[in-house]
Amino acid sequence: MRAAAAVLYGAAGSLVLSALVAAPAHPFPQPTREERGTAVAAERARAAGVRFGACPAAEGLPPSVRCGTVRVPLDYADPDGEQIELTVSRAEATGRAGGHRVARQGALVFNPGGPGASGMYFPLVRGLPEFRRLAAAYDLVGYAPRGVGRSAPLSCQDPEEFTKAPTDSPVHPGPAVKAERIERARAYARGCAERAGAALPHYTTLNNARDLDVLRAALGEEKLTFMGASYGTYFGAVYATLFPDHVRRMVFDSAVNPDPEQVWYANNLDQSAAFERRWADFRAWVAKHDRTYGLGATPDAVARAYDKVRAAVTREPAGGTVGSDQLHSAFLQAGYYDDYWPMRATALSQYLKGNPRPLVAQAGPRPAAAAEEENGNAVYTAVLCNDASWPTDFAVWDRDNTDLARTAPFETWDNAWMNLPCAYWPAPRQRPVDVWAPAGALPPTLVLAAERDAATPYAGARELHERLFGSVLVTERGAGTHGIAGGPNACVNRYVDAYLLEGRLPDRHAECAPHPEPRPTTRAKTRGPRAARR
User: Fold this and answer.
1) Nearest residue to 511 via CA among 499, 523, 494
2) Is 482 a catalytic residue?
3) Would you state the pLDDT for residue 28?
4) Residue spans of beta strands (DSSP E) within 1-95
5) 442-456 per-residue burial string, b: 16 or more CB within 10 A, e: under 16
6) What is the pLDDT of residues 342-401, one digit of tens each?
7) In the Cβ-directed half-sphere of 392, how many Cα atoms lie within 13 Å?
8) Which residue, 145, 144, 125, 147, is CA-closest to 56?
9) What does the buried/exposed string (b/e) look like for 278-296 if buried means 16 or more CB atoms within 10 Å of the residue's CB?
10) How many angstroms separate the CA atoms of 372 and 378, rounded?
């Protein structure tokens, strides 16, 4: 793939159409149909550009953010066939920071992960202190990947059915629950096939990477400056493998393990094990603040308090809408982000004191967000199922998850149920890209990781670092928040700014002390702004 990309593009990133003509005795593999299609689509996008204007009301963005669309082929093997439109948002570089003029460096494109998450909100971060220097030098560009939001949206199920509540999710399911979940997974996979039709096989990481190159061209950028978080690191790494000559700077924040043998079944087992460790971190913090919450002075005591609430909402759902499934989903977010810890601890404490309102507010369904949540899950499922082979015999899932749940019960079976449609997926499976950049193939890149991240365990960051020659790994020691760029750790942010603004990186490895733990509070907040998924 890397050799073919060199054939397609010159050093300046311009399309070399003559290279597409068959030549005798050429030492490199001939471009595939998808590679040729990507080149054609990128050249068309370069010519068309992006016409930015007022954002549709559905995006909920202020006038300072402008929106547009980019056309990409549904199938890159057929660039003249069906086209879909990706929505794009942009806030132009402010040109000033700290009272000084700052030279523009182009567009900084961001993807928040998922799969299934939209980055349309990204330009709004220019109002945050942590992003002001970057916002001065870069146009901040977000977009909704294929299938997400208004970008040829994918759906697999009626949103009301997807978000119905209350529902139950036993930690150690018995045969009847497993049989019901198998049927549910089969039905979900059928729903994806029926609703998407012939488009279903085209929701893939490979196409996400190709779309990113078309977006780069449409923005008029010869080289891509990109920041990806979570799953965004994986398809960013695939992009770097396919299009190394098109990379200017790349930040991989909370890296997915790109080892083809890990994608995606093994990665999810590792994730479930890591969430058990992070769940222990949360319980230890709550125990430390027993005077505030009264949930127990030891992590085990806090676990008993949680189990008591779980048993209670299983018998009688809180507010008529929060069963054990909704409870678990809310507390899973505490495994992603420690800024959720005070509000989740408050909800538990208040429930046990007879006040279920904070728990219902934080864990209950949001009817207004049902379509968005169903859409995100549909894209997540389609990309993961299409990307790689999965076990097709439930006996394998049963064996592996039963074994893992003995030591890591918190997330294991809920994670398995989320991914089980892949066992019955009707579309062809791909072979994962072997992410790799040897010496000289790629400019230096920056990998960020929190040592105790559960969603993307730290081993994945080390693996990506080893695969991308010349990359630098910055580790936030002793911390576990998922996605650390632009967060509360000033040390991490200094490395990000130095790299994106000046191209400066430390030697191979660097470490930052953990950001401060959240302070306990008893304010009964509702749910936060971020959704929990890879």
Assistant:
1) 494
2) yes
3) 55
4) 53-54, 66-73, 83-91
5) bbbbbbbbbebbbbb
6) 999 999 999 999 999 999 999 999 999 999 999 999 999 999 999 999 999 999 999 999
7) 8
8) 144
9) bbebbbebbbbbeebbebb
10) 10
Q: Which two tokens stand for residue 323?
A: 């069963």
Phi-psi region of 223 (alpha: psi -120 to 50; beta: other; left: phi over 0): beta
Query: Above 90 in pLDDT, residue 291?
Result: yes
Catalytic entry in 289, 328, 465, 482: 482
- pLDDT band for position 11 (50/70/90)? very low
| Side-chain-facing half-sphere of 285: CA atoms under 13 Å | 25
Whole-number pLDDT of residue 524: 56
- The CA distance from 426 to 71, in Å, is 27
The DSSP secondary-structure symbol of 437 reads B
Q: Measure CA 325 to chain center.
A: 22
Q: Which of 259, 338, 453, 497 is catalytic?
A: 453
Catalytic (active site) residue 272: no
Q: Which one of 89, 151, 155, 230 is the catalytic residue?
A: 230
Residue 90 reports pLDDT greater than 50: yes
The pLDDT of residue 30 is 84
